[in-house]
Design a protein that fits this description.
Elements (H helix, E strand, L loop, with lengths): L19 E4 L10 E4 L13 E4 L6 E4 L9 E4 L7 E15 L2 E11 L8 E8 L3 E8 L10 H10 L1 H45 L6 H23 L2 H28 L4 H22 L1 H23 L7 H6 L6 H24 L8
Parallel strand pairs: 7-9
Antiparallel strand pairs: 1-2, 2-3, 3-4, 5-6, 6-7, 8-9
Helix pairs in contact: 2-3, 2-6, 2-8, 4-5, 4-6, 5-6, 6-8
Length: 365
């Protein structure tokens, strides 16, 4: 199973030799009721189900008849949403009606315990909301096989924006000085990364990443296709120039929208989309017709933007993030205009430096 955070688990080991049978507790649970359940195969006795409620003076009810959707599980953590992963939580649904519009389901919260193999150590089975049976258990399979944890990494980055700032300083400085010299490699890399992300999205949508093998296969195919796409685009210089212009125009739209919002207070989201898309198309057209001259301006602008953006991360709260600009949630102060002045200065300085160096990639000539 692959969780929403990218952590990979293999829970086949919790499949019991015999079905589990545990007492049910919780408000609204029938007195004397027991839940029989298993995970990878249907229960013994002919019922096409993974979980059945017995006893309590009522007819048996199938509470879990569907297999786990392997990309839907979530991480169990020690504390908040960015803390260490200590287990996995997954749900199996059913077609048995419980309340109006709600069916019975069975959720398993499996915590990591390296010492427990074979059958899982069931701690409790609790009926919640009258319709969901929550199983709490310990087992070795609650420990990640591959401990990728995107949420934890992104949470760490959001709390340590200085790391992103350092990356922006390095990339921005390189583009401001060497943009004309190395632009094909930068553009080709962006295309390759886009193709890799597209392959991963398609794989998730079609269910090809539900197993560890499928996940590895999709990522491998995405890597190969991304590299091939980058190599092909690298051979078509005018396509690269047009794409660079479109990217530059799009991000210029974000800056223009932020300036308009700061000066007038108008921050409609549709305005951001309109300005960004129009400038994106205009940037692509200008880049295609102007060629090397536009590449000089574009690499200088992108480099200056990244360099300036790095300092807004070191001194946060004065420059709206890209996400805030997209949402129309823009609040600026006098320091914003100082950063804008830095961006303009760096842009002009970069144009002058690159023209003076006159180191141009041969494809542009």
């Amino acid at each position: 199973m692959t969780t929403s955070s990218g952590t990979i688990f293999n829970v086949e080991g919790i499949e019991g030799v015999d079905d589990y049978s545990e007492n049910v507790s919780g408000a609204g649970s029938p007195p004397g009721a027991k839940l029989s359940f298993n995970y990878c195969t249907f229960l013994e006795g002919g019922a096409q189900a993974y979980g059945v409620l017995h006893g309590g003076g009522a007819q048996d009810k199938i509470v879990a008849s569907k297999a786990v959707i392997a990309t839907k599980p979530t991480n169990i953590r020690e504390g908040d949403a960015t803390s260490k992963t200590v287990g996995i939580s997954f749900t199996q649904g059913s077609d048995t009606a419980c309340n109006s519009g709600v069916n019975y389901s069975m959720t398993t919260n499996l915590s990591c315990n390296e010492a427990i193999t074979g059958a899982a150590d069931i701690k409790s089975v609790v009926l919640t909301n009258g319709c969901e049976f929550v199983i709490t258990a310990d087992h070795k399979d609650g420990c990640p096989d591959v401990n990728i944890d995107i949420d934890q990494y992104m949470g760490w980055l959001s709390e340590n924006e200085w790391v992103v700032g350092i990356i922006y300083i390095v990339l921005g400085s390189l583009l401001m000085v060497f943009g004309l010299q190395f632009f094909p490699y930068v553009t080709a890399s962006l295309i390759a990364i886009f193709i890799m992300g597209l392959c991963a999205s398609v794989g998730l949508a079609l269910g090809w990443m539900e197993s560890t093998g499928g996940l590895i296969a999709v990522l491998a195919v995405g890597l190969v296709l991304g590299v091939l796409a980058g190599c092909l685009v690298r051979r078509q210089v005018w396509i690269m120039i047009a794409l660079l212009g479109m990217v530059t125009g799009f991000f210029s739209g974000s800056l223009v929208f932020a300036l308009i919002a700061s000066a007038s207070g108008w921050s409609a989201v549709w305005g951001w989309w309109t300005i960004s898309v129009v400038l994106c198309l205009a940037g692509g057209a200008l880049a295609y017709f102007l060629g090397k001259s536009f590449v000089l301006w574009a690499t200088s602008f992108v480099g200056a933007y990244l360099f300036t953006r790095s300092w807004t991360l070191f001194f946060p709260g004065h420059w709206p993030s890209e996400a805030e600009i997209m949402a129309g949630d823009i609040e600026t102060d006098s320091i914003f205009w100082v950063f804008l002045g830095v961006l303009i200065f760096c842009f002009i300085a970069s144009v002058c430096v690159q023209k003076k160096r006159n180191c141009v990639h041969e494809d542009l000539d």
